[in-house]
């Protein structure tokens, strides 16, 4: 017996053989047998008289979807009392004599007193109607439902328990959804501490305990308890400091303060937690979530089964490290401490990290070798991704050089005054640069991204959450360790956090109260998924890198093949690699065109013909499926255009606003291209591969942004800063500047402080 909150209860469940509960949310998708408990607040309307039909229909749809996937679904439902109350109220009104209704007047009829209805009578009147409603809804999905009414006595009698167990198993075997409810028409009132009257039992006093008891009896994998709150909070929901508990562990009860129970129903949150813990110790995983919120109730059950971060998940396995929410808070606090350091101190941290990359080269390469071997053994990475995963001595040396560039340029980043205005006498306004806050950077197969992004975050005074791909786990671990070692020089170790828990990217994107900016670095599919999943958090980046090179009629023969080869072949997996080659029509069947084709063949580049290019050829390469394709390999599309104007139009229609190039000796044509192409980077007679933070002299980049707001192109330190306004006055009030006031606005521009010469 465990005593908690002055309520003793049994914690030893019935013996069972189906194993332990799931340790992590991500495992919930493997749940085969599931109980969904619908609280009174979920099933009933706000007026507590009648059912919330829209919510109920949505729940039935989700249960039907899971049932049709081959799962075994059971529902423990409330609602009979509310439905019966609605029916009995109608009966009472109709039973009034017609004469009384006619003579009382319309206003008096509205105010007609309705007696208090006894709950058992309401349940008796509502059970059949509630079941008929469920049957009608499930029939829409070709699913049969069956009703089972139980009382506490049914669990105390061994023969009745066996009968109930057998009935439920037979229904599940026939693909029927059992709908279970306490028989409120005859159930006796609950007795205090009745859990102590038996051994290894939890009394059925409400539908929470009923659901837990059934879950254990039926050896279910998952119990979903839907209520009118998001889950379990560390203090009563609605209070200022209340935080949703993502994962609740047995033994954490003392950290929770319970509020009042819901507006309807027998049990409050305390009863739900008690039932959940009992079921958990019986081997059933439990999630408590909100089934009434209009934005999530339509998919709350399926989201839980898919392992998404919804509600509170009960787990017996407590991770060794902090939760991702705690890591975000640590990064916030660490980032603020980092921003408060002197510029020289932040630079010192980055210089130290650069030294560690070269000093610890052997350990880094050994960890990277483990990642490469595991990836090759599992065969889960394509060759371009394997190249991104690989580290080398030259890569580490380049990283160190880039980090030192960042350190040198970070001296005048945070706190730089970019505007000064004298509003009035002794009232001066300044606009200064400040960090954005907490950055979440999600990257795939790019361990070299970790020190680059960390250095930029340190230089700009931002807290940082890093989520790397599992294919680079060993490399990321040692690089993060070295980063924290460098941060420890000035006691700000927590400013950069590596997320090692099984957090899904979609769940991270929901932490809008903890994260200020998301920067994805990876495949176009990853970026699109993050942009779709981000709720209220800005996303900086680009979903695709469809880069063009346009060869004009006045192009230099010597420059064309060099620029095209470098753009396509130097690193074909990069987002700034050439994907579509635009050729002026007049260059077809010329020696220059032949040289381009020969060079691509020598480099083993697979060519796809655009529609116009294919029309000029008798035997053409395979025609391109889409002109909006990022190949990320030794492949490219060739298309023909009639003019520079058509090249610009093609780029605007099929490009991704990343990087586009013109090769020509005609300055007028080049300037037209540079001014009219609306991309983040537009080059003249230079490879697309120059679109890079290191090559731009930024030291490194957190990514390349094709956004039109805030930062665009390769994003370095400047792109990770925002501004705030500082106003210094002396007893100034706005009323002094009114028509009859004593002061006048000056709005004079003041000179900026001298910037650091370094």
UniProtKB/TrEMBL annotation:
Pfam families: AA_kinase, Aldedh. Its EC number is 1.2.1.41, 2.7.2.11. Residues 32-290 form the Aspartate/glutamate/uridylate kinase domain. It is found in: Mitochondrion matrix. The keyword Transport does not apply. GO terms for molecular function: ATP binding; glutamate 5-kinase activity; glutamate-5-semialdehyde dehydrogenase activity. The keyword Transport does not apply. GO terms for cellular component: mitochondrial matrix. Pathway: Amino-acid biosynthesis; L-proline biosynthesis; L-glutamate 5-semialdehyde from L-glutamate: step 1/2; Amino-acid biosynthesis; L-proline biosynthesis; L-glutamate 5-semialdehyde from L-glutamate: step 2/2. It comes from the Eukaryota. GO terms for biological process: L-proline biosynthetic process. Gene3D superfamilies: Acetylglutamate kinase-like, Aldehyde Dehydrogenase, Chain A, domain 1, Aldehyde Dehydrogenase, Chain A, domain 2. Residues 323-588 form the Aldehyde dehydrogenase domain. Keywords: Amino-acid biosynthesis, ATP-binding, Kinase, Mitochondrion, Multifunctional enzyme, NADP, Nucleotide-binding, Oxidoreductase, Proline biosynthesis, Transferase. Can form homodimers/multimers. Bifunctional enzyme that converts glutamate to glutamate 5-semialdehyde, an intermediate in the biosynthesis of proline, ornithine and arginine. In the C-terminal section; belongs to the gamma-glutamyl phosphate reductase family. This is Delta-1-pyrroline-5-carboxylate synthase. It comes from Notiomystis cincta. The lineage of its organism: Eukaryota, Metazoa, Chordata, Craniata, Vertebrata.
